[in-house]
Amino acid sequence: MTKIGYQRVSTTDQNTDRQELDVDRIFEDKASGKDADRPALKEMLAYIRGGDEVVVFSIDRLARNLRDLEDIIKEINAKDASVTFLSEQLTFSGSDDAMSTLMLQMMGSFAQFERSMILKRQAEGIAVAKAKGAYKGRKASIDRDVISKMIKAGSSLTSIAKSLGISRQSVHRIKAELGL
């Protein structure tokens, strides 16, 4: 039996220090929990074997919506492994325990509600900042001037995409936006 830890923070500038786990192996994601499409989560799910125990600091670190939370736990349990949430002091091993299922659904719903409230507050803050003229949106990650110069110099869309490390579709879209 291996004790496997899973840690997640939402951004690359955050750290997992408060999610202290005493485990044999840790998988760590620095990505939003809005969906289950996270590299370390996928790697952990592939790594799990029968008898293993997955340890997570809290439910909201594993998933931010109830459906993903239930699906991830079912996938772990299907491999004859268990999941333990330290903060909530809950363990799910695949047995049908009505109280544990109720607690999971309630805690998962709270995590989903919290995510919805974060998004709502964010949208309200952006609306206020826009009204004040302080919100400009995120900076463009692709330099349109460079693309324009490269197109005018006769470079192919494929070579532009490769040299800038972006997709051909992005170059195509920008070319159309610039009217070139």
Walk me through the structure.
This protein is 49% helix and 13% strand. The protein is an alpha/beta fold. It has 2 domains: 3-114, Rossmann fold, CATH 3.40.50; 144-178. It has a 5-stranded mixed sheet with strand order 2-1-3-4-5. Strand 4 (82-85) and strand 5 form a beta hairpin. Helix 5 packs across helix 7 and helix 6 (157-164) packs across helix 7. The model has no long low-confidence stretch (mean pLDDT 88).
- The CATH architecture of the largest domain comes to 3-Layer(aba) Sandwich
Can you say what the CATH homologous superfamily of the largest domain is? Resolvase, N-terminal catalytic domain
Which structural class fits the helix and strand makeup?
alpha/beta
> What is the helix fraction of residues, given as a range?
40-55%
What is the ordering of alpha helices and beta strands? EEHEHHEEHHHH
List the total number of helices.
Answer: 7
* Alpha carbon gap, first and last residue: 61 Å
CATH topology-level name of the largest domain: Rossmann fold
Rg over CA atoms, rounded to whole Å, is 22 Å
Largest sheet: 5 strands, mixed
How is the largest sheet built, in terms of strand order?
A: 2-1-3-4-5
- Total beta strands: 5
Q: Give the CATH class of the largest domain.
A: Alpha Beta
**pLDDT averaged over residues:** 88
Q: Please, how many domains?
A: 2
Strand content: 5-15%
Q: Enumerate the spans where pLDDT stays under 50 for 5 or more consecutive residues.
A: none
**What is the 3D form?**
elongated
